[in-house]
Design goal:
Layout lengths: L1 H9 L1 H25 L2 H4 L23 E9 L14 E11 L10 H12 L8 E15 L16 E20 L2 E18 L3 H12 L20 E17 L9 E15 L1 E16 L3 H5 L22 E17 H4 L20 E17 L2 E14 L13 E12 L1
Antiparallel strand pairs: 1-2, 1-12, 2-3, 3-4, 4-5, 5-6, 6-7, 7-8, 8-9, 9-10, 10-11, 11-12
Helix pairs in contact: 2-5
């Protein structure tokens, strides 16, 4: 009996973590439901045929199974220089993502189906809009100052912020044809639309960080009670709408292979922006080197991060499934940040008197340099294309603010991701 009681007491932090996660999950589901469709929509069956358009989606040569992804961002994963890991700034993020094009037929994706209908109506290329992927994710991200066990805000350092969110995203491809030097050139442009609904200010950040420091990462404060000063303490809803446009620029080394879907090097360009808890515009170049499947370039381009909750569905079915894909990659991103709610608080839903940074301290221009590797194994089973993948990255982010009270400091963190095929 004594052993049983001790076991129950020792698992209390885990039980609290699970209970809080379930509570937040139901809250996010409630918010998502009433954000994406009305009560009348609940009584109407989903219509898979898009109205008022003559453009039909192309059928894929083979069906593609869904994927389940686990994505973890952690400052302790920055192995390039362990001395730069101070448990500060972006300290932790975790996301669970399910991707499958058929998700677009569900009620939760009603706004994104409307986007698809609009793209088809305004399409003037002569080629149909191709539905590429859809994903649903649940995740949480935590940002902290350097000192996490102070009851009072650390004036001049960033505030505590934790976001729990549910994410829906969908990708579509547009094929353009134009003439160059007397030849017809075909180019694909990939557009991804994302809607995140979430909660700031829950107790989950405090519980998770306390649990991690007590049982996993030793030597750090086990009771980070500074979380009582976090952004929107007590809980408030938030929203993010994001658009990303990806365009492959070139590939090299194709002649070394017999089929046209392999290359040794490729380069792509991203442009996008968001409104909500991040008001921003971003732009980046993405370079890969290794044993590459060109048909998957847009798939990997989205990156893997618990902040973005990206989708990893195969972009298109190639004529032949290339079993192995392994490459190194690098990305350079510039961001024009108009407003970061995790630094200055929410625009209309913040708490009176909460600690936030002065707008004059915020750096509008933020730069990310990211490098990493990916290993994937693709195969066909039961007529479906499937994929396993493992990813790793390192990220250096420039200073998001400078209060001149403390020395300005970059972000340093790493990420790991695992993708498995599911039905």
């Amino acid at each position: 009996m004594l052993i049983l009681v001790r076991g129950i007491i020792s698992t209390k932090p885990i039980l609290l973590f699970i209970m809080r996660s379930i509570q937040l999950l139901f809250c996010s589901a409630f918010l998502t439901t009433f954000t994406v469709f009305s009560q009348e929509d609940l009584l109407i069956p989903v219509d898979n045929n898009q109205p008022n358009t003559n453009v039909q989606l192309p059928s894929m040569s083979k069906p593609t199974s869904g994927t389940f992804s686990v994505l973890i961002d952690q400052d302790v994963f920055f192995f390039s220089d362990p001395n730069l890991n101070e448990d500060r700034n972006y300290t932790q993020g975790t996301a669970f993502v399910y991707s499958n094009p058929d998700l677009l037929n569900s009620p939760f994706f009603w706004p994104l189906r409307k986007v698809e209908t609009y793209l088809e109506k305004t399409n003037r290329t002569g080629n149909p809009i191709q539905r590429m992927n859809a994903s649903f994710g649940l995740g949480g991200t935590a940002f902290t100052p350097l000192k996490i066990d102070s009851m009072n805000p650390i004036v001049g350092d960033r505030p505590f912020a934790f976001l729990f969110y549910a994410s829906t995203s969908a990708g579509f491809a547009k094929t353009k044809e134009f003439h160059r030097h007397g030849e017809t050139v075909t180019r694909k442009i990939y557009n991804t639309y994302t809607m995140n609904v979430g909660l700031f200010g829950t107790n989950l950040g405090y519980q998770f960080q306390g649990f991690a420091h007590k049982y996993i990462i030793k030597g750090r404060p086990e009771d980070p009670f500074g979380w009582n000063t976090q952004i929107s303490q007590g809980g408030s809803p938030t929203l993010l709408l994001q658009y990303n446009r990806f365009r492959p620029l070139f590939s090299a080394g194709d002649a070394l292979f017999n089929d046209g879907d392999k290359s040794l090097l490729d380069l792509g360009w991203n442009f996008g922006g968001s409104v909500g808890y991040y008001d921003r515009v971003f732009n980046d170049l993405y370079l890969r080197l290794g044993f590459i499947n060109k048909s998957n370039q847009a798939r990997w381009n989205g990156g893997f991060s618990a902040v973005e909750s990206a989708s990893f569905e195969r972009t298109e079915n190639p004529k032949k499934v290339n079993k192995l894909e392994a490459f190194l990659y690098a990305r350079l991103r510039s961001t024009f940040m108009l407003r970061n709610s995790m630094l200055v608080g929410q625009r209309w839903l913040g708490n009176d008197g909460e600690y936030v940074l002065d707008h004059d301290w915020i750096n509008t221009a933020v730069f990310d340099f990211e490098w990493g590797a990916a290993l994937a194994f693709n195969y066909t089973k039961g007529g479906e294309d499937r994929s396993w993948a493992l990813m790793f990255r390192q990220v250096v982010r420039s200073q998001e603010f400078n209060s001149k009270i403390f020395p300005a400091r970059n972000h340093y963190f790493g990420s790991v991701g695992l993708i498995i095929p599911v039905r």
